[in-house]
Design brief:
five-stranded antiparallel beta sheet; alpha+beta; Neuraminidase; five-stranded mixed beta sheet
Length: 599
């Protein structure tokens, strides 16, 4: 569907706000006491009370303006008029001609409403022609929403975009580091990222002080530390010897100081002594809920490369390749615990103890030898919870659950580095049987579940984290658009810039849908129906992403991949379909985990 050239955004369906009755007077030049001088020499009239009430950042300026005149000479008349109309009516028209300029002015005025609308308008319209301009503005304003709408497009066109001079001259150090380590760039080659670092360093080292960053003013030790941080954002273990040799013959390599060439070389050698990154798929199972209180979890860890070789070798029309898994690891587990992966360990969280009481205990399981050790217990006992990794996969979060008496809204996070749990803000909805997934650049999305008195839920809620100037984390919740279908214990994964949800624990809603990630605080996002598995019922909690492949197990042990319907099909998820790729033997109704390990 062709996108509209322009869109009108309004704070309320009726378009009415407190200042709306004065809009007609303003158009007639009445009830105005301030003139705004624009870049192109025009004047726009308004009343300072209206401006101050709508844009608190202007309170001092409109109070102190001499002769009733404000000078907004960075912006043309049409931009200033659009913002003034918004101040009176709460509505604004955004188009490709004015979106970026409106965003900049709204950012200066401190209007999060307009900036989020501009980001929402631009999100589906990012293209090769405008991405550099949007990216430049995003970095100049350090606006997370604008950065997030650019990252998926940059990832898809990294080689062409990252070679542009404007890309290096406008991106700040912290933005570059975040970009290089972003999960959405997992498909970008490591050598391409190293070239970007080298080009960025050269551009900023030779820049005039007034042009870009303060990098040229840093001392040698600081520049070395900065360079180390950037190189550390790249997974060097994935760069082969041939690719690294080719990079070492490139012009950008030759332009680097010897100290930095040695630094990259040493870091690459060290990374490759540890071996390349390997991916593992871990099916696991335990007796159905409620059969016994204290039980065992069975699991098998298999290297994905071995399974992938069978998939590739399969001839057309042949039976699905079989992954013969030996479920030799049987570890004691608590009934109704939640199982999650963090770093290189499996965690079994909460559940019910031998007396049937909600447990605080947390066990850490080695996925390769089955050894079990204890992690710090949670602050509150709970079961029927959901869990997800967060903060670049370095923390484990749990949401809601049941304490044996009531459903819970409380949440906690585990930091394995300190082995400590800390409390998070309560969820808006107390619930059990929800699903959760980490969304890079946004936070953790929690979907579905069950609430006593309401039944199965369609809810979707986002927990996001920002860092204050003093380094303190600030967590907050907000509601997203509800799912199209209510679900309990659904599979949830982040794939190609969308939150994908599949199946439910009761096998009632077996369909698949995805959420377009919100561009701003005022955007709840939008769910879209996707193709379902043609033959099979999705196993709850078995939707995973493995090395940029979306996999879903069904209740019969078949594993399906979400792929383009044909080579000529568009890349939008609506045109993807499920294709069975292998079968898990020796077990039925297995759930899936995915693990990365560098060895």
């Amino acid at each position: 569907m062709e996108l509209a050239v322009k869109s009108t955004y309004s704070e309320q369906p009726s378009g009415y706000v407190e200042c709306a009755p004065f809009a007609r007077l303003q158009r007639l030049g009445k009830f105005t006491d301030v003139r705004i001088e624009t870049k192109d020499g025009h004047e726009v009239v308004a009343h300072r009370v209206v401006l101050a009430s709508r844009f608190p950042h202007l309170e001092q300026a409109v109070t102190d303006c001499v002769g009733g005149s404000l000078k907004w000479r960075r912006y043309d008349r049409n931009i200033v008029e659009a913002v003034v109309v918004f101040a009176y009516t709460g509505s604004i028209e955004i188009s490709m001609d004015n979106a970026v300029r409106l965003f900049l002015m709204a950012n200066d005025l401190g209007s999060r409403t307009i900036t989020s609308w501009c980001a929402e308008f631009l999100q589906p319209r990012v293209s090769r022609e405008n991405v550099e301009q949007i990216w430049s503005v995003a970095n100049a304003t350090r606006n997370t929403h604008m950065i997030n709408i650019c990252v998926p497009f940059i990832a898809a066109h990294f080689d062409s975009i990252a070679t542009q001079v404007t890309f290096h001259s406008t991106i700040e150090l912290d933005s570059l580091s975040s970009l290089l380590s972003d999960d959405r760039l997992v498909s970008v080659a490591g050598t391409a990222k190293l070239r970007t670092i080298a080009n960025w360093f050269e551009a900023n080292s030779t820049a005039n002080k007034e042009d870009v960053t303060a990098f040229v003013d840093e001392d040698d030790d600081t520049r070395v530390a900065t360079f180390k941080d950037l190189v550390g954002a790249v997974d060097l273990s994935e760069i082969t010897s041939d690719d690294f040799d080719e990079f070492c013959m490139s012009n950008c390599w030759m332009s680097l100081p010897k100290e930095f060439r040695d630094l990259i070389s040493d870091a690459w050698k060290e990374a490759n002594t540890r071996g390349p990154m390997r991916y593992y798929i871990i099916p696991y199972t335990y007796p159905p809920d409620g059969i016994i209180v204290y039980t065992e979890m069975k699991f098998a860890t298999s290297e994905w490369k071995e399974i992938e070789e069978k998939i590739i070798a399969r001839s057309a029309g042949a039976e699905l390749p079989t992954a013969h898994l030996n479920f030799r690891h049987n570890v004691p587990s608590r009934d109704r615990c939640v199982v999650a992966v963090l770093n290189e360990s499996i965690y079994m969280i909460g559940g019910r103890n031998e007396d049937g009481e909600a447990s605080r205990l947390v066990d850490r399981v080695d996925p390769f030898d089955g050894r079990v050790s204890s992690a710090a217990p949670m602050a509150q006992g709970r079961y029927w919870v959901s869990a997800a990794a967060a903060v670049n996969g370095q923390q484990l979060l749990v949401f809601g659950g049941y304490n044996g008496t009531t459903q819970m809204s409380s949440c906690e996070k585990l930091d394995p580095a300190t082995n400590r749990w800390t409390s998070l803000p309560d969820m808006p909805t107390p619930l059990t049987f929800s699903g959760a997934a980490r969304v890079p650049g946004f936070g953790v999305v929690v979907v579905g579940g069950y609430k006593s008195g309401n039944g199965n839920l369609c809810t979707a809620e986002l927990l996001s984290c920002s860092t204050e100037c003093n380094g303190v984390e600030k967590w907050s919740w907000r509601q997203l658009a509800p799912m199209m279908q209510p679900r309990t214990d659904p599979g949830v994964a982040y794939f190609r810039g969308r939150v994908v949800v599949a199946g439910d624990g009761h096998c009632i809603n077996t369909g698949v849908e995805c959420l377009r990630l919100p561009a701003g605080d005022n955007d709840p996002g939008q769910w879209t129906q996707l193709h379902s598995i043609e033959n099979g019922t999705p196993q709850s909690g078995s939707l995973v992403v493995l090395n940029e492949r979306l996999l879903l197990a069904d209740r019969d042990g078949n594993v399906h991949e979400f792929v383009r319907a044909s080579d000529s099909s568009p890349l939008t998820l609506e045109e993807f379909t499920w294709k069975p790729i292998f079968t898990i033997r020796n077990v039925s109704e297995a759930r899936l985990l995915v693990l990365r390990r560098q060895r």
